[in-house]
Design brief:
single chain, 144 residues, alpha/beta, Rossmann fold, 5-stranded parallel sheet
Protein backbone atom coordinates (compact mmCIF):
# COMPACT_ATOMS: atom_id res chain seq x y z
CA UNK A 1 0.00 0.00 0.00
CA UNK A 2 1.24 3.46 -0.87
CA UNK A 3 0.89 5.86 2.05
CA UNK A 4 1.44 9.18 0.30
CA UNK A 5 -1.92 10.58 1.36
CA UNK A 6 -3.44 11.64 4.66
CA UNK A 7 -4.63 8.64 6.66
CA UNK A 8 -8.26 9.00 7.70
CA UNK A 9 -10.95 7.01 9.50
CA UNK A 10 -14.53 7.71 8.47
CA UNK A 11 -17.54 7.17 10.69
CA UNK A 12 -20.16 5.14 8.82
CA UNK A 13 -22.50 8.09 8.21
CA UNK A 14 -19.62 10.03 6.68
CA UNK A 15 -18.63 7.09 4.47
CA UNK A 16 -22.21 6.78 3.23
CA UNK A 17 -22.31 10.54 2.58
CA UNK A 18 -19.20 10.56 0.36
CA UNK A 19 -19.81 7.60 -1.97
CA UNK A 20 -22.78 8.88 -3.95
CA UNK A 21 -21.92 10.26 -7.39
CA UNK A 22 -24.08 13.35 -6.71
CA UNK A 23 -22.74 13.98 -3.20
CA UNK A 24 -21.10 17.37 -2.64
CA UNK A 25 -18.49 15.42 -0.67
CA UNK A 26 -17.80 12.85 -3.42
CA UNK A 27 -14.40 14.46 -3.90
CA UNK A 28 -13.29 12.70 -0.68
CA UNK A 29 -14.06 9.27 -2.11
CA UNK A 30 -12.33 10.30 -5.33
CA UNK A 31 -9.25 11.31 -3.29
CA UNK A 32 -9.23 7.84 -1.72
CA UNK A 33 -9.40 6.32 -5.19
CA UNK A 34 -6.47 8.42 -6.45
CA UNK A 35 -4.37 7.94 -3.30
CA UNK A 36 -4.43 11.50 -1.98
CA UNK A 37 -6.23 10.03 1.04
CA UNK A 38 -5.78 6.62 2.63
CA UNK A 39 -8.90 5.19 4.23
CA UNK A 40 -8.14 3.13 7.35
CA UNK A 41 -10.64 0.43 8.29
CA UNK A 42 -10.86 -2.48 10.69
CA UNK A 43 -12.94 -5.64 10.32
CA UNK A 44 -15.58 -4.15 12.63
CA UNK A 45 -15.80 -0.96 10.57
CA UNK A 46 -16.05 -2.92 7.33
CA UNK A 47 -18.88 -5.03 8.75
CA UNK A 48 -20.75 -1.92 9.86
CA UNK A 49 -20.28 -0.29 6.44
CA UNK A 50 -21.71 -3.44 4.83
CA UNK A 51 -24.68 -3.58 7.21
CA UNK A 52 -25.66 0.06 6.65
CA UNK A 53 -25.08 -0.12 2.89
CA UNK A 54 -27.34 -3.19 2.65
CA UNK A 55 -30.01 -1.32 4.59
CA UNK A 56 -29.76 1.83 2.44
CA UNK A 57 -29.26 0.14 -0.95
CA UNK A 58 -29.20 -3.62 -1.45
CA UNK A 59 -26.92 -6.59 -0.90
CA UNK A 60 -25.32 -6.42 -4.36
CA UNK A 61 -24.33 -2.76 -3.99
CA UNK A 62 -23.03 -3.37 -0.46
CA UNK A 63 -20.95 -6.33 -1.64
CA UNK A 64 -19.48 -4.34 -4.55
CA UNK A 65 -18.41 -1.49 -2.30
CA UNK A 66 -17.00 -3.78 0.40
CA UNK A 67 -15.11 -5.83 -2.20
CA UNK A 68 -13.69 -2.60 -3.62
CA UNK A 69 -12.51 -1.56 -0.15
CA UNK A 70 -10.89 -4.96 0.41
CA UNK A 71 -8.70 -4.75 -2.69
CA UNK A 72 -8.05 -1.06 -3.20
CA UNK A 73 -4.40 -0.06 -2.60
CA UNK A 74 -5.37 3.15 -0.75
CA UNK A 75 -7.53 1.40 1.81
CA UNK A 76 -5.49 0.20 4.76
CA UNK A 77 -6.81 -2.76 6.75
CA UNK A 78 -5.92 -2.23 10.41
CA UNK A 79 -5.73 -4.94 13.07
CA UNK A 80 -6.96 -3.72 16.44
CA UNK A 81 -4.95 -5.19 19.31
CA UNK A 82 -6.09 -2.91 22.11
CA UNK A 83 -9.51 -1.46 22.87
CA UNK A 84 -9.33 1.93 24.59
CA UNK A 85 -13.06 2.11 25.42
CA UNK A 86 -13.00 5.92 25.45
CA UNK A 87 -16.63 6.51 24.49
CA UNK A 88 -19.13 5.22 27.03
CA UNK A 89 -22.22 7.05 25.71
CA UNK A 90 -22.20 4.98 22.50
CA UNK A 91 -19.71 2.15 22.87
CA UNK A 92 -20.21 1.12 19.24
CA UNK A 93 -18.29 4.28 18.24
CA UNK A 94 -15.14 2.97 19.91
CA UNK A 95 -14.25 0.88 16.86
CA UNK A 96 -13.54 4.10 14.93
CA UNK A 97 -11.46 5.56 17.75
CA UNK A 98 -9.43 2.38 18.12
CA UNK A 99 -8.82 2.25 14.37
CA UNK A 100 -7.71 5.90 14.31
CA UNK A 101 -5.26 5.26 17.14
CA UNK A 102 -3.92 1.96 15.75
CA UNK A 103 -3.45 3.42 12.26
CA UNK A 104 -2.02 6.72 13.49
CA UNK A 105 -4.61 8.44 11.28
CA UNK A 106 -4.34 12.18 10.86
CA UNK A 107 -8.13 12.54 11.11
CA UNK A 108 -11.18 10.73 12.42
CA UNK A 109 -14.09 12.28 10.54
CA UNK A 110 -17.51 12.22 12.18
CA UNK A 111 -20.45 14.52 12.72
CA UNK A 112 -21.48 12.45 15.76
CA UNK A 113 -21.35 14.44 19.02
CA UNK A 114 -20.30 11.31 20.97
CA UNK A 115 -16.79 11.86 19.64
CA UNK A 116 -16.49 15.40 21.04
CA UNK A 117 -14.98 14.13 24.31
CA UNK A 118 -11.88 13.15 22.32
CA UNK A 119 -11.09 16.83 21.83
CA UNK A 120 -10.36 17.10 25.56
CA UNK A 121 -8.04 14.10 25.92
CA UNK A 122 -4.28 14.50 26.07
CA UNK A 123 -3.78 10.78 25.52
CA UNK A 124 -4.41 9.01 23.33
CA UNK A 125 -4.36 11.81 20.78
CA UNK A 126 -7.20 11.54 18.24
CA UNK A 127 -7.82 14.39 15.84
CA UNK A 128 -11.62 14.35 15.57
CA UNK A 129 -13.16 16.65 12.95
CA UNK A 130 -16.56 17.08 11.35
CA UNK A 131 -17.01 16.55 7.63
CA UNK A 132 -16.99 20.29 6.90
CA UNK A 133 -13.95 20.84 9.15
CA UNK A 134 -12.12 18.05 7.35
CA UNK A 135 -12.99 19.54 3.98
CA UNK A 136 -11.61 22.91 5.02
CA UNK A 137 -8.42 21.47 6.54
CA UNK A 138 -7.73 19.18 3.60
CA UNK A 139 -8.34 21.83 0.99
CA UNK A 140 -6.27 24.38 2.95
CA UNK A 141 -3.37 21.91 3.18
CA UNK A 142 -3.36 21.23 -0.57
CA UNK A 143 -3.64 24.83 -1.71
CA UNK A 144 -0.27 26.28 -2.81
Amino acid sequence: MNTTGFKIVLDTNIFIAIIGKQSPFRWIFDKIIDGSLVLCISNEILLEYREILERKTNEAVANNIVNFLMIHPYVSKIEIFYRFKLISTDEDDNKFVDCAIASNAQFLVSNDKHFDLLKHLDFPQVNIVTLTEFEKRFLDSTTP
